[in-house]
UniProtKB/TrEMBL annotation:
Main localization category: membrane
CDD domains, alphabetized: Halocyanin
Pfam families cross-referenced by the UniProt entry: Copper-bind (PF00127)
UniProt-listed InterPro entries: BlueCu_1, BlueCu_1_BS, Cupredoxin, Halocyanin, Plastocyanin, TAT_signal
Domain of life: Archaea
Segments forming domain Blue (type 1) copper: 107-192
Full protein name: Halocyanin domain-containing protein
Keywords: Copper, Electron transport, Membrane, Metal-binding, Transport
UniProt source species: Natronocalculus amylovorans
GO annotations of cellular component type: membrane
Subcellular location: Membrane
Native organism taxonomy: Archaea, Methanobacteriati, Methanobacteriota, Stenosarchaea group, Halobacteria
Stretches the record annotates as Disordered: 31-75
Length: 193
């Protein structure tokens, strides 16, 4: 048995369900209790159980949401998860693809997580013509952003505040990685619609 300091999606849904059952049995109803939605702050990750393959395809029909980092707006997960063909199997913070369609610019943090070896968010969906700004935290050593199909690549940098921008003009799924940290799961994806 492992010691977990955070709740994963299943824990939240189980606790929410147990809470609803308790209120129902007591004859109490509360319109706010148990909306069925989970909010995961940007930069946080769920610790999925070992039997989860990490593809984000749960059985829930409910909309999942995540804060986009500015504390003002929630970003939902996409309705139809792209097939990343195992790309995220070893990525700790992948919890589905966040829907940023309708935005002109989207930020992805480089060097996120406790060890500075993650992109956050790990997977995003955007419209064609959207610019993604990758911004370095300065954590985890030198990083880059390199497309697995060699369509774009930043320089290898470790400086906090450094940015790299790429505009995605063509539809498709673009996977990218940090060259020195790929084996440690520092990978991401942009799905362009």
């Amino acid at each position: 048995m492992t010691d977990r300091s955070r709740f994963d999606r299943r824990d939240v849904l189980q606790l929410t369900g147990a809470g609803l059952l308790t209120f129902s049995l007591a004859g109490c109803t509360a319109s706010e209790a148990g909306s069925g939605e989970e909010s995961v702050p940007r930069g946080a990750s769920s610790d999925d159980d070992a039997d989860d393959n990490g593809n984000g395809n749960g059985d829930s029909d409910e909309a999942d949401e995540s804060e986009n980092g500015d504390g003002e707006e929630d970003v939902e997960l996409v309705d139809e998860e792209p097939d990343y063909d195992g790309w995220f199997d070893d990525v700790d913070n992948y919890d589905g693809t966040l829907d940023f369609t309708g935005e002109d610019t989207v930020e992805v943090v480089v060097g996120a997580g406790d060890d500075g070896l993650l992109y956050d968010p790990a997977a995003i969906e955007i419209d064609a013509g959207t610019t993604v700004v990758f911004e370095w935290t300065g954590n985890g050593g030198d990083h880059n952003v390199a497309a697995s199909d060699d369509s774009f690549e930043s320089e290898l940098v470790g400086d906090e505040g450094h940015t790299f921008e790429h505009t995605f003009d063509d539809e498709g799924t673009y996977t990218y990685l940090c060259t020195p940290h790929e084996a440690l799961g520092m990978k991401g994806a942009v799905n362009v619609v």
